[in-house]
């Protein structure tokens, strides 16, 4: 079976009494950047493109990085777009706006 590319939007909302939330979110974004998958960082979420299993592993690593960096709690919101018979590409959605 040929794996399709999907889009996974992830919003990580860390809670900490002592660490700035932007600093914690940056830890998650670092994980995504180091993964090598195509991605777009926006003010509210980061959208990744790739095979679903791989993206879910990266999302878990990002979550773990935020907790290891000192978050007391993390709220995580996912949005996923999957097509039955074709890839979902970030470029199809945003390149026309560049």
Model description:
The model has no long low-confidence stretch (mean pLDDT 96). It contains three helices and four strands, in the order βαββαβα. The chain has a domain at 24-84: Alpha-Beta Plaits (2-Layer Sandwich). With 98 residues, the protein is of the alpha+beta class. The N and C termini lie far apart (34 Å). It comes from Belliella marina. InterPro entries: MTH1187/YkoF-like (IPR029756), Thiamine_BP (IPR002767), UPF0045_domain (IPR051614). Belongs to the UPF0045 family.
Keywords, separated by commas or semicolons:
98 residues, alpha+beta, Alpha-Beta Plaits, four-stranded antiparallel beta sheet, 3 helices, 31% strand, Thiamine_BP, UPF0045_domain, MTH1187 family thiamine-binding protein, MTH1187/YkoF-like
What is the CA–CA distance across the termini? 34 Å
Reported CATH architecture of the domain at 24-84: 2-Layer Sandwich
Count of strand segments: 4
Neighbour order of strands in the largest sheet? 2-3-1-4
Q: Can you summarize the main beta sheet?
A: 4 strands, antiparallel
Please state the structural category: alpha+beta
Mean pLDDT: 96
Spatial shape: elongated
Helix tally equals 3
What is the beta-strand fraction?
Answer: 25-35%
């Amino acid at each position: 079976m040929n794996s399709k590319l999907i889009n996974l939007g992830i919003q990580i909302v860390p809670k900490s009494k002592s660490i700035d939330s932007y600093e914690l979110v940056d830890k998650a974004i670092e994980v995504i950047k180091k993964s090598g998958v195509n991605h777009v960082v926006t003010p509210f979420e980061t959208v990744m493109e790739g095979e679903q299993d791989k993206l879910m592993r990266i999302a878990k690593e990002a979550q773990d990085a935020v907790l290891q960096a000192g978050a007391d709690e993390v709220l995580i919101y996912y949005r996923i777009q999957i097509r039955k018979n074709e890839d979902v590409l970030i470029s199809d959605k945003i390149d026309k706006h560049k």
